[in-house]
Specification:
Order of helices and strands: HEEEEEEEHHEEEEEEEEEEEEEE
Helix content: 25-40%
Number of helices: 3
Shape: rod-shaped
Length: 419
């Protein structure tokens, strides 16, 4: 007897799996094509720098690098031609006023000083001898004047006596000839006395002029000696102030001319910072703004005191002075970083500064979509720009994300896909 066997119906599982996979692939492909259709350009995510717009305190600052430089510099120069004998100090040494810096030598100057001193002694002796001779001549002239005066007075007495007799009632007592002769003699003696007195006055004036001339020569020689003694003393070059030695551009045995630089001194506690600020950011810097200077060991606060009018190699020099004391590591030519505080806002929208972003302008930024797959170009008003942040005035809100790396390759596209 035959037994009928009923076969179980097998479900087409494999076919269902294939259909499901095909549907998934179709959906994925469709979505991919839809995404591709949303943008004309794709860019890798790992090549981008993305920053988020935030709201909060915002400090606008400008950074610059530079060095500390002396505010009060003095160059010591040679007063005469000389040869360098010895360098007493080296750059970096601290010196007090009057401390020896360099020893110079000039044998010709020292010899000339000795000869001039001998000349002064000779002129002084000549002055004393001339003074004695002048006094002797003047005394002789005074005696001559006195004799002339006595002769005149004696003759005048005789003339007066004869006159009385000549005009008396005794005729023949004195003849007219004798009387007239006495009158003429008296007049001559008076005139001789007057001339002798005039000669005395002129002699006194002449002798005084000669004496003054000798005194002038003597004074000139003394001044020459004082100047040469000062020049000899200047062969020992000394510090003119309490300072630090910056340069001594000399070598022992070197010959130098008058006016040659010997040493450069600077006040140790009088330093300023000379910062180099990029010209693109100098428009926000103004005199009086607060500056924080970082020596990498210490920080100190100063203020902008001068902005150079010229641009050199794309930077502008800004001088910063310090009101408070300087730290122990502050010294000339020390490299420093400076942050110039332009303004401080209690609350403002801001974001990391995109590359090439200009302060106070309207620019196009690429804003990231909520799903992070696209970046669309939006117009944004920006305000103050800091070193690494920039203020947002309009076009973005807190929480928005933008591309802050270089977007130059994207400028031709309004919307790009991030893959």
């Amino acid at each position: 007897m035959d037994i009928a066997i009923t076969k179980k119906k097998v479900l087409p599982v494999k076919r269902y799996v294939l259909i499901t996979l095909a549907a998934a692939v179709t959906l994925a492909g469709g979505r991919y094509l839809w995404i591709l259709g949303q943008a004309d350009f794709s860019i890798a995510r790992d090549s981008l720098v993305i920053s988020e717009v935030r709201n909060g305190p915002f400090t606008v600052s400008v950074r610059g690098t530079g060095v500390l430089a002396p505010d009060n510099i003095q160059w010591l120069s040679a007063a005469v031609e000389a040869k360098v004998v010895r360098l007493v100090v080296k750059p970096g040494n601290l010196v007090k006023t009057g401390d020896l810096i360099v020893i110079l030598d000039n044998p010709q100057l020292i010899q000339k000083l000795a000869e001039t001193q001998w000349e002064l002694e000779a002129q002084d002796a000549e002055l004393q001898a001339g003074k004695t001779a002048q006094e002797s001549l003047l005394l002789e002239q005074k005696i001559s004047v006195l004799n002339a005066k006595l002769d005149y007075e004696s003759s005048l007495l005789t003339y007066q006596a004869q006159g009385e007799l000549f005009h008396s009632q005794s005729p023949g007592a004195v003849s007219k000839i004798t009387f007239e002769k006495s009158r003429l003699e008296t007049d001559q003696l008076k005139r001789r006395w007057q001339i002798s007195e005039q000669r005395r006055i002129k002699m006194e004036e002449n002798l005084a002029a000669q004496h003054n001339a000798r005194l002038a020569r003597l004074s000139k020689t003394k001044k020459m000696i004082e100047r040469m003694m000062q020049q000899v003393d200047n062969l020992n070059v000394r510090a003119s102030m309490d300072s630090i030695v910056l340069e001594v551009p000399l070598e022992p045995g070197q010959s130098i001319v008058t006016g040659a630089n010997i040493a450069k001194l600077a006040l140790q506690d009088s330093l300023i910072a000379e910062l180099q600020v990029p010209e693109i950011m100098i428009g926000e810097v103004a005199v009086g703004q607060r500056v924080v200077i970082d020596t990498r060991n210490n920080k100190m606060t100063g203020a902008v005191t001068r902005i150079d009018p010229a641009v050199i190699n794309g930077t502008v020099q800004v001088d910063v002075s310090f009101a408070d004391g300087l730290p122990a590591d502050a010294r000339p030519d020390l490299s420093v970083d400076g942050e110039i505080i332009v303004t401080e806002l209690a609350e403002a929208l801001h974001v990391d500064r995109p590359l090439f972003a200009q302060s106070k302008s309207r620019m196009g930024f690429y804003k990231i979509s909520d799903d992070g797959q696209f970046a669309a170009r939006v117009d944004v008003n920006v305000g103050f720009g800091s070193v690494n942040k920039i203020q947002i005035l309009g076009g973005l809100k807190a929480g928005d994300r933008i591309i802050t790396s270089d977007t130059t390759p994207l400028e031709s596209y309004q919307k790009v896909r991030i893959k």
